[in-house]
């Protein structure tokens, strides 16, 4: 049987590729890639002559079967994405599952990753993080997911297109306008930009085009910071906790949101309990 290599490729700067990755790409019989035009540039730069085979979300069912057949016939194949690590918010999962089911050897050849590159330079906590990849496009689904995740004690890493980055930040703003967020764009390229501010400030910078909406974005969101002293409400029921803030002239909606943040719960859960839904 052949070997399936999962090869990391540069996320911007073509020099960010390992010696091993170049050697593997030069030695395999075939390279499966998202966009042959993108991978062709890399191959030309490093004098890699293996034939390219298109493998993307729209043809993966048919191509998975074909590639498994080739691997069974002792053909060595490298799988790459347009940038970064294959399978990480990119196609390849079905191929790896099928290969493992057939007993085909799968080897990883590590390389750059946009999410971790942005996290390293963000200045936000990096010991515990959650990779969310691309968020749902519909606002309601996006809000629901972020509302749940933003109150966990974990830095969030998100991929976003330049066309939707403002909308996603506005969703973050609705949940917590003071939360610190880092925007990374054009990572490892000449015009790399990584800006970490509260979300209100970032939206202003985007509006003023101090942060151009060009290139793919990585959004890194600071995790929730637990209140150091939670003992004062530990003996309270959720209703009593909400009423505590209402009695301080806070509107019920704001009080529910505050309680959800302090207890690291979904706002909808606190709402349902408070209103007996």
UniProtKB/TrEMBL annotation:
One matching Pfam family, short form?
TP_methylase
Which CDD domains does its entry note? RsmI
List the PROSITE patterns hit by this protein, alphabetically. Answer: RSMI
Q: What is its EC number?
A: 2.1.1.198
What does this chain do?
A: Catalyzes the 2'-O-methylation of the ribose of cytidine 1402 (C1402) in 16S rRNA.
Report the NCBIfam families cross-referenced here: 16S rRNA (cytidine(1402)-2'-O)-methyltransferase (TIGR00096)
Which compartments is it annotated to reside in? Cytoplasm
Note the PANTHER family from the entry.
RIBOSOMAL RNA SMALL SUBUNIT METHYLTRANSFERASE I
A single GO CC term, please?
A: cytoplasm
Q: Which family is annotated?
A: Belongs to the methyltransferase superfamily. RsmI family.
Under the heading InterPro entries, the entry gives: 4pyrrol_Mease, 4pyrrol_Methylase_sf, 4pyrrole_Mease_sub1, 4pyrrole_Mease_sub2, rRNA_ssu_MeTfrase_I, SAM_MeTrfase_RsmI_CS
From the Swiss-Prot or TrEMBL record, give the protein name.
Ribosomal RNA small subunit methyltransferase I
A single Gene Ontology molecular function, please? rRNA (cytosine-2'-O-)-methyltransferase activity
Q: Where is the signal peptide?
A: none
Record's keyword annotation contains Signal = no
Q: Could you tell me what reaction this enzyme catalyses?
A: cytidine(1402) in 16S rRNA + S-adenosyl-L-methionine = 2'-O-methylcytidine(1402) in 16S rRNA + S-adenosyl-L-homocysteine + H(+)
Q: Which UniProt keywords apply?
A: Cytoplasm, Methyltransferase, rRNA processing, S-adenosyl-L-methionine, Transferase
Answer whether the UniProt record assigns the keyword Methyltransferase to this protein.
yes
- Stretches assigned to the Tetrapyrrole methylase domain: 4-201
